[in-house]
Design brief:
Number of strands: 7
Largest sheet: 7 strands, antiparallel
Structural class: alpha+beta
Distance between the termini: 34 Å
Length: about 240
């Protein structure tokens, strides 16, 4: 929600400036554009820009409907210094909850596909499942030390969607990643602690233990189950 907070701060600053000019005459309409207002001064441009920025942000989160009369009422109440219908805390909670609902609904189809895939995949011979629900296959079991969740590990990996499409690969880049294990996705943190150095596993990670309902835009959609072909090359420290 960091972006939302920034948007709100910008909006409030703009509204304070607009309050100094709220009694100015309304913008004229253009014959060429029907009822569209002419942006005849800086205030008009800023007012329209605020609407575009706010609308774009919330549309990207999945919100496709608002009550424009209530949006205008809220803006005017703040400008006029009137008591708002909801407190700031309630506004924040309401928006967060609604955005979470939109994200959840947007991800539902992808979540269902992933759960169906994992339910079938765990029936295959050689596939093991951790208590949290990560599935894995041992391709090669190494003989080195096992990392702790605080270890820094050197890893080669390929990442795939459940349809087999590759979305990332350290092997293709020709350079393994070196990263603190506890900074990686939860599915990796859990299974890598089962892997001695030199191990080569294939992981099947549910969305809850991957990138969650929001995903990792623009590459990974929300709710995606993911497949990783991983090798633990070394424990750096």
């Amino acid at each position: 929600m960091q972006k939302f907070t920034l948007t709100c701060l910008l909006m409030m600053a703009a509204l304070m400036g607009m309050s100094q000019a709220k009694k100015s005459a309304p913008a004229k309409t253009s014959k060429q554009t029907g009822n569209a207002p002419i942006l005849k001064n800086a205030l008009d441009s800023m007012s329209y820009a605020i609407g575009v920025l706010d609308a774009n942000f919330f549309k990207q989160q999945g919100m496709d409907k608002v009550n424009p009369q209530l949006v205008a009422r809220a803006y005017q109440d703040v400008i006029d210094g009137k008591a708002t219908l909801l407190t700031l805390e309630t506004c924040d909670m309401t928006v967060r909850e609604q955005l979470q609902a939109y994200v959840r609904e947007k991800a539902k189809g992808t979540i269902d596909e992933g759960e169906k895939f994992l339910a079938e995949n765990k029936k295959r011979s050689g596939v093991q499942t951790t208590p949290s629900g990560v599935q894995y296959e041992v391709i090669t079991m190494g003989t080195g030390a096992r990392p702790a969740d605080t270890s820094v590990v050197k890893v080669h990996y390929d990442g795939f969607f459940i349809n087999g499409k590759k979305f990332d690969s350290s092997r293709d880049r020709g350079e393994p990643i070196v990263y603190p294990l506890n900074k990686l996705i939860p599915g990796w943190v859990e299974v890598f602690q089962l892997m001695p150095v030199g191990s080569h596993f294939k992981l099947y990670v549910p969305y809850q233990l991957g990138y969650g309902e929001r995903g990792s835009p623009p590459t990974i959609p929300g709710g995606a189950a993911l497949i990783f072909d991983v090798e633990l090359l070394d424990i750096v420290k």
